[in-house]
Amino acid sequence: MPSLKELSRKKELLSGGHRLCPGCGASIIVRQVLLATEDPVVISCATGCLEVATTIYPFTAWRVPWIHCAFENAASTISGVEAAYRSLKKQGRIDKRIKFIAFGGDGGTYDIGIQALSGAIERGHDFLYICYDNQAYMNCLSTSSLIMTKYGLKRITEVKEGDEIYAFDQKTHQLVLKKCTGVFDNGIKDVYELTTLHHSIKATANHPFLVLKRNGRGRENNLVWKTLSELKPGDQVVVLKNSKHFEMEEIRSIK
């Protein structure tokens, strides 16, 4: 194992000058992970603070091959790259040893990304997955957003850690009460308005929506998570019908 003195001489693979906050845990984690390997590395990074703050167009802080993917796709993206690498190596078209790493936040890992991660593990792909859990699942809603709490609607700015708020249970498709684990102000970001027949919501481009995925004739449709940036008019999204039930509505506009 190299000493701290030896590590200090290594080239940083995440450069300075990015927009992450001073002392942010995400950048510290990335730097420590990348310092730990001598081999070439390919990175898959889910939508979130780490992605936004290190790759503001047309700049990037990454000094390694890096792939941005949707909120829930970090594991499936890197597993595809790793599978392509194994195929090329088997064909003799590449001989170097390459390591593969995926970074995702708590929302992109434990919630809408768990299916991609569990599938990649079950298939036996060789990669390292890093979940930087800030217990926030953030970057999504404007300050005018209303949140359903145990005691009625509240503006998101009035919600506090420990408050009981309603959340969608993916197993039962019902609303359930859960404790808020944290509220964070992420500064000024572009906000878009998504409108259906009876609903509208203002959110940032990486806010996840539960949408209907049509799998073709003779195959059962299913629900998947997509970020607002991946949606288009005509897509079917899950909306709240009443205090207990949900239904599908077609997106009319996003602007």
TrEMBL record:
Task: Provide the alphabetized UniProt keywords.
Answer: Oxidoreductase
The answer to keyword Lipid biosynthesis applying to this record is no
- TM segments? none
Output the GO biological process annotations, alphabetical, semicolon-separated. Answer: intein-mediated protein splicing
Q: Name one GO molecular function term.
A: oxidoreductase activity
What Pfam families is this protein classified in? TPP_enzyme_C
Q: Does the keyword Oxidoreductase apply?
A: yes
**Residue ranges of the Hint domain?**
138-241
Q: What is this protein called?
A: Hint domain-containing protein
Which organism is this protein's natural source? Aerophobetes bacterium
